[in-house]
Amino acid sequence: MLAILDQAFAADVLAGLKAPIPAIPARWFYDKRGSELFDDITRLPSYYPSRTETAVLEAIMPEVAALAGPGRAVVEWGAGSLTKTPILLEAIDPAVYVPIDISGTYLRQSARDLRDKLPWLDIIPVEADFARHVELPGAIAALPKLGFFPGSTIGNFVPGSATDLLRSFRAELGTGALLLIGMDRVKPVERLVAAYDDPEGVTAAFNLNLLERINRELDGTVRLADWRHEARWNDILSRIEMHLVSVRDTSFEVLGDRFAFRAGQSIHTENSHKYGPRGARVQLLTGGWTPLKEWTDPAGDFAVMLARA
Ligand code: AVI
């Protein structure tokens, strides 16, 4: 009998492989190996978003602290990275920090690491899938709130789903809450593709790990050598797409179902939308958040936006 999470994984994989345009949701990248590979990605020279956003956050914190004021409950969707989250928490003097993550193990580990780093901070971890409505702890009900959603994770959602997600953040935090969100900017195609197809091959390993995970967890018989990683810029939809492309005619089984792919056919595994200044504001507004202020690095590669519900 498969565990509950495995059943959801199985359902998404089987439905995704049977679809006319085969696709598997990007959230399944993040098993233990996938999360480690993602950490490696954030340190790659060609993957500019993490270090650029960190530099922007460091530069703007005095201003954010002045705008937000002390005593807020900081709610972060996705367990915080120890590089970015402390920059915010050390600057704004919050009353409590609420990290939300689907993986209890990962959540507890990051809460422990953060307690070591910021022992004065009250941390209330919440184990939940932030893509669904999350019930926040009653203890923070009366506090003013600041939502934190860095990393341009919003870009992994197609615009309609990003709108739904932002609206659910608004419903969780309530009117008057603030949101600090990272949104990656459109830039020359070569740089975008290099960020998602690094010469070191880490992003390729991250993408291919999805097939390994299918083999490990869903009795898959996928031959890894029959697949390669591809990052494509989709100019009309303003997004980088990651695909797994079959290099030859191939077939495999997943949980007893057989799938055949022709050479050159692909499985679409991720979208990473990039925003112009106007598109970023429109996305926030349609999600129910009024943009108050935005900052970028000097080159304009990555934006951090502050908005009010
Ligand atoms: C988590 N997310 C914002 C990353 C991105 O840039 O879309 C995931 C990623 N995929 C490949 N590289 C990084």
From TrEMBL:
Q: Which organism is it from?
A: Sphingomonas ginkgonis
Q: Where is the Histidine-specific methyltransferase SAM-dependent domain?
A: 9-308
GO biological process, alphabetically ordered: methylation
**PANTHER family cross-referenced by the UniProt entry:** ERGOTHIONEINE BIOSYNTHESIS PROTEIN 1
- The primary gene name is egtD
Keyword Lipid metabolism present in the record's keywords: the answer is no
Enzyme class, top EC level, equals transferase
Domain of life where this protein originates? Bacteria
User: Can you name this protein?
Assistant: L-histidine N(Alpha)-methyltransferase
- GO molecular function terms listed in the Swiss-Prot or TrEMBL record: L-histidine N(alpha)-methyltransferase activity
- Do the record's keywords include Protein biosynthesis? no
Keywords attached to this entry: Methyltransferase, Transferase
- EC number(s) in its UniProt entry? 2.1.1.44
